Amino acid sequence: MTLQFLHKESTALIVVDVQEKLFAKIANNNEVLAKILSLIEAFHILEMPLFISEQYPQGLGKTVPAIQKLIEKMSIKAHHFEKRAFSCMQEPSFRDAILNSHIQEFLVVGIEAHVCVLQTAKELLKWGKKVTVATDATSSRNVPDFTSAKGELLVANARLTTVETILFELVRDSRAPAFKAISKLITS
């Protein structure tokens, strides 16, 4: 297995299905939400692309208010899309946007790890993309399902790591212009 690094110029964040009706039932949901919010803010600071999916919002509700408020407050440009299939790559508008872009590396976070996150990651890998999953910004309703998803992701050659590792990897150097802003997200 080759070493993987995320590169600011070719990486996008995909926030998968962090929706009102399901999120309250997710294991460690407050911690997961805090990590997702940090990632969204960091990707905004670093001027990196952000995609947000919603699985059947008529049934599962919209994206949780905390994410919506952060996006509105900071005027973050995010690509929103609805889907009915579990994998984001099964949504034609998403798939076309991904395949027709320069983006080759994806950071995938959200819920549920063993369904939509896993299927999205596997399909991205199938299309020759590199996939990293921040395990502290991803969860399921049940810990065994989350654990199983992590095992499958590793077998599929996705990279598993944490938000802090990712953020410092994207900044690369304490002299980088964004270093102070990014480090504040980690220490707050």
Strand content: 15-25%
Number of helices: 9
| CATH arch. level architecture | 3-Layer(aba) Sandwich
Q: Ranges with pLDDT <50 over ≥5 residues?
A: none
Straight-line N-to-C gap: 34 Å
Shape, per Cα inertia axes? globular
Instruction: Compute the number of structural domains.
Output: 1
Structural class: alpha/beta
State the CATH topology: Rossmann fold
Report the helical percentage. Answer: 40-55%
The CATH superfamily is identified as Isochorismatase-like
Q: Please state the average pLDDT score.
A: 94
Helix-strand sequence = EHHEHHEHEHEHEHH
CATH class: Alpha Beta
- The Cα radius of gyration reads 15 Å
Q: Tell me the total number of β-strands.
A: 6
**Strand arrangement, largest sheet?**
3-2-1-4-5-6
What's the gist of this structure?
The chain has 188 residues and is an alpha/beta fold.
Describe the structure.
By secondary structure, the protein is α/β, with parallel strands linked by helices. 46% of the residues lie in helices and 20% in strands. The chain has nine helices and six strands, in the order βααβααβαβαβαβαα. It has a six-stranded parallel β-sheet, with helices on both faces. Helix 7 links the parallel strand 5 and strand 6 (159-161). Helix 2 packs parallel to helix 4, helix 2 (29-45) packs antiparallel against helix 9 and helix 6 (113-126) runs parallel beside helix 7 (143-155). The model has no long low-confidence stretch (mean pLDDT 94).
